[in-house]
């Protein structure tokens, strides 16, 4: 074989070996990319689902598949009402956070220069604080001897401390709304940031008022971010059990506290897993519904 042909063959061999090595490298990265979420997210959910079909008898888990946990949920007197009351509570939290979060995000998006991002950091910083500390801070404000009652008593607005603001579902609603407000502000702010300023200016140049520009341009283009923010808050509130535990009292019982009690006090892990699966179904429905709505609006 001529020397040139030998060099060409060697080059082709090296190139083929390089392509095989690159393909193997990509295959390993792909396996790792799918293995990590499978091991740490999907596999625990599958094990939870399987465990929800077991049951506890005489303090021991019986590894026999049955629907008795789900039958207990639907047949029990208190589970279904608490479940629907929790959903309504979380919908209320989502509505309140959007109602207050949209003006805040709109104000932040309207700022110019560094002020916009400095103010945005102000709203992001609470996300980095301890969840427990934030709840204690709100309790210090709403409590019977809290800051709010002291101010009202000092001003003579009330004769005795208000007690309906703490240790009930109203307290849970207010506390969750305050804590989760930044999670509604961020998606709305991002949606507003993506609206080209030139489009709003063109609307004003054509004679549209500020309200008309908002109604016909800003709101339709930011409604997807609003829906995402509301869904984000709803999902986070739905699985929360710490806030109802700390500010809900006996009358502020939520579905998350029932699940927590099954794992922490009753030691009935199969029933707790079944309740968690039911909660997961609601979360998945909310996420999938949000995806379908935003995708449909994007195609319009």
Polypeptide structure, described:
- It contains 12 helices and 2 strands, in the order H-E-E-H-H-H-H-H-H-H-H-H-H-H.
- It has a two-stranded antiparallel ribbon.
- It is mostly helical.
- The protein has 2 domains: 42 residues; 238 residues, MetI-like (MetI-like fold, Orthogonal Bundle).
- The chain is 79% helix and 2% strand.
- Helix 4 packs antiparallel against helix 7, helix 7 crosses helix 9 and helix 11 runs antiparallel to helix 12.
- The N and C termini lie far apart (65 Å).
- The mean pLDDT is 86.
What is the average of the pLDDT values?
A: 86
Report low-confidence residues grouped into runs of 5 or more: none
Give the class-level CATH name of the largest domain: Mainly Alpha
CATH architecture of the largest domain: Orthogonal Bundle
**Helical element count?**
12
CATH topological fold name of the largest domain: MetI-like fold
Helix content: over 70%
Rg = 27 Å
Number of domains: 2
Biggest β-sheet strands, sense, barrel: 2 strands, antiparallel
Strand content: under 5%
Keywords:
mainly alpha; single chain; two-stranded antiparallel sheet; 2 strands; MetI-like fold; 300 residues
Outline the fold blueprint.
Elements: H1 3-51, E1 55-57, E2 60-62, H2 68-75, H3 79-110, H4 114-128, H5 131-142, H6 147-155, H7 169-193, H8 197-205, H9 210-238, H10 242-248, H11 255-264, H12 269-299
Antiparallel strand pairs: 1-2
Helix pairs in contact: 1-12, 3-7, 3-9, 4-7, 5-10, 7-9, 7-10, 8-9, 9-12, 11-12
């Amino acid at each position: 074989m001529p020397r040139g042909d030998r060099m060409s063959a060697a080059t082709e061999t090296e190139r083929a070996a390089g392509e095989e090595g690159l393909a193997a490298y990509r295959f390993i990265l792909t396996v790792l990319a799918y293995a990590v979420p499978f091991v740490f997210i999907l596999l625990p959910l599958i094990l939870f689902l399987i465990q929800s079909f077991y049951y506890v008898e005489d303090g021991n888990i019986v590894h026999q598949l049955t629907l008795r946990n789900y039958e207990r949920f639907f047949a029990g007197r208190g589970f279904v009402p608490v479940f629907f009351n929790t959903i309504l509570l979380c919908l209320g939290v989502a509505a309140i956070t959007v109602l207050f979060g949209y003006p805040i995000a709109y104000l932040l998006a309207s700022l110019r220069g560094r002020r916009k991002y400095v103010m945005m950091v102000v709203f992001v910083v609470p996300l980095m604080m301890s969840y427990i500390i934030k709840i204690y801070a709100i309790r210090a404000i709403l409590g019977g001897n809290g800051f709010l009652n002291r101010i009202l008593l000092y001003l003579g607005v009330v004769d005795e401390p208000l007690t309906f603001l703490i240790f009930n579902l109203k307290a849970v609603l207010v506390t969750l709304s305050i804590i989760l407000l930044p999670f509604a502000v961020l998606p709305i702010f991002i949606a507003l940031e993506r609206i080209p300023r030139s489009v709003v200016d063109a609307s004003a140049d054509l004679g549209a008022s500020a309200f008309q520009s908002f109604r016909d341009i800003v709101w339709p283009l930011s409604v997807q971010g609003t829906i995402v923010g509301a869904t984000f808050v709803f999902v986070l509130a739905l699985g929360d059990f710490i806030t109802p535990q700390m500010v809900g009292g006996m009358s502020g019982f939520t579905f998350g506290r029932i699940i927590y009690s099954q794992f922490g006090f009753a030691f009935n892990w199969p029933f707790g897993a079944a309740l968690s699966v039911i909660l997961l179904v609601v979360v998945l429905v909310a996420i999938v519904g949000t995806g379908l709505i935003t995708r449909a609006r994007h195609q319009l």
